[in-house]
Amino acid sequence: MEEVLVIVAMIVGGLTGFLTVKFIQKKLKDKNENK
User: Fold this and answer.
1) 1-35 pLDDT tens trace
2) How far apart are CA 12 and CA 21, in angstroms?
3) How far apart are CA 23 and CA 31, in angstroms?
């Protein structure tokens, strides 16, 4: 059971990191276009 929790945690962590990076890139892109 613990292995499943570790895998789920890794997937959730990966998705969170991916979405965070996308969000930051979009913010930077918007900031650059406003100049």
Assistant:
1) 799 999 999 999 999 999 999 999 999 999 888 76
2) 14
3) 12
Distance between terminal CA atoms of the chain? 52
Q: What is this structure's pTM?
A: 0.60
DSSP string, 1-35: -HHHHHHHHHHHHHHHHHHHHHHHHHHHHHHHHH-
Residue whose token pair is 């979009």:
26
